[in-house]
User: Which sequence fits this backbone?
């Protein structure tokens, strides 16, 4: 004897209900895994962001110290020039002490410009990481409605960016051969004009 079609339909419906009933715990586990993954990602972002913020502060401190030292050397040049009666560029460039100080100022100013660029780079990196952190935080707040794929994409994007900034978070690296150093003549002209 064949079971009636309504019984078969009922069994099929019951089978679907049972499958749906068991699905939410799997989705909840996936959401929990995604939430944990987001928390780990947020911790990584916060760590790198703190390190980059410290490197930016280090660069600012170095730049300020260089600026202070450059001003001291400028005063020294003016005093030496006054003592020796040096008033024009040609004589200044033939005076060893003044020439040495002019070259030193040029090098210091090149480093100051490089530190300023590093500070800008670190600021952009921190802003970018802060944006990613906020995005991860927002996604964490609604993690139960997110699909694992979206969480995975965010984590993947974040890992790429964090890994790109990781070497820069450790120490500031300035390559001297990448800097443009002004000539002693241009430094003398800037001193003569009072800059």
Assistant:
């Amino acid at each position: 004897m064949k079971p009636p079609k309504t019984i078969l339909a009922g069994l099929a419906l019951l089978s679907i209900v049972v499958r749906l009933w068991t699905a939410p715990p799997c989705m909840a586990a996936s959401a929990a895994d995604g939430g944990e993954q987001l928390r780990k990602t947020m911790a990584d972002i916060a760590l790198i962001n703190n390190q980059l913020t410290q490197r930016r502060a280090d660069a600012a401190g170095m730049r300020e110290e260089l600026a202070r030292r450059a001003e001291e050397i400028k005063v020294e040049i003016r005093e030496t020039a006054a003592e020796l009666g040096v008033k024009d560029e040609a004589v200044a460039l033939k005076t060893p002490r003044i020439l040495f100080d002019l070259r030193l100022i040029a090098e210091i100013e090149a480093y100051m410009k490089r530190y300023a660029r590093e500070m800008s780079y670190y600021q952009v990196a921190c802003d970018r990481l802060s944006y990613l952190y906020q995005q991860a935080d927002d996604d964490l707040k609604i993690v139960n409605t997110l699909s694992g794929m979206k969480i995975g994409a965010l984590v993947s994007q974040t890992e790429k960016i964090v890994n790109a900034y990781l070497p820069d978070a450790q120490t500031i690296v300035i390559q001297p051969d990448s800097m443009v150093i002004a000539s002693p003549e241009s430094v003398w002209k800037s001193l003569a004009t009072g800059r």
Remarks:
- The two ends are 106 Å apart (CA to CA).
- Residues 5-84 form the longest helix (80 residues).
